[in-house]
# Entry
Amino acid sequence: MTETDYSPSKEVLRSLRLLRSPDPEDRKRAIRFLSSMRSDPRVQAVFEHMYKKDPDPAVRQLAWRAIWPADPSVPAPAPREEAPPFELAPEPTLAELVPPPAAPPSAAPPPVVRRSSRRESRAWRQPFLLNPSNVPLVEQERARRARRKKTARWTFRLGALLLLLMAVLWGVLVPEWVRWFQFEWDGVTVAGTVTERQQRADSYFVRYDYTVGGQSYAGEQRVTESAYEALADGAAVSVRALPDDPAEARLEANSPEDRFRNYLTAVVAGLTLAALLMLLSAVLRRRRALRIVPPAVLTGQVVACEGVLDDDGDFKVKVRFRFVTPHGQTLTGQARQIRNDLRDRPMPPLGAPVAVYYRHEQSYRLL
# Structure
């Protein structure tokens, strides 16, 4: 062959003819050759035509990369339904195959991939919803968990406050019980004599004398009305005294203080048990609020997100996400949705929260 057989014009014509070949590999070779001429707007128009109309996905992707060589993603559009393959026609001329430069290129806009910095990603506190119609479902789940957490929080606070109050009352009761046990365990019973009885308002008092180790002591004690009436001046009584401190003594008779101590102890013990049950209930409620039982709305993270204008001019958002199941398994998925309202808004960054409706490992979807 001569040099004329490999002239640039003949190679261009051969490549243009290959673009109409029914064999996808021929069309790929043509695109690769013409990629060196991508700065020519007419070649860009040919690539745009291949990207929009070619029935083979690999050819469309190669055409897209020829138009946007620096773009990392290739959002090749889906082929139209029942799209016929390229029809063979008589060999065209170069002027017919390559449009004139007068028509400005109207290449499909590149995919709008918006990524945010780490600082911007902190602004994404609420889950990104691919489908805004799922807002009621997410809000219902959030309200249910918040209600359980709030109930658990207030139950815990009331239980803790009640337990603190019981601790104060126990601080008053414990010394009284310690003193009573001292008399019961260490005290000795000695004989005594009633020296005087007194009634002061609604209270009854008895004064008495007793002897310990040959030394006389006197004491006074409040008693019940029945014990007061059963005693008389000069009557013999039994006195319980401490050997180490004989001056400390008490009558072996019913005392209002003993009754009040026993009653208050029963009340404080019951309230203490109630406080402990409230704290236990708060812990269980909080665990229940945190426990996830399918079906449920889980929180996941964005792995990748991009927005692309399709052939119809709609803004389509594609999200790849991951989440952890209640059993601890990490699952990934992807979803697409037309969101024309997000054309001029930033896409959720890597790590932004998303809501996933989870039933089991084979059934879940991005909300």
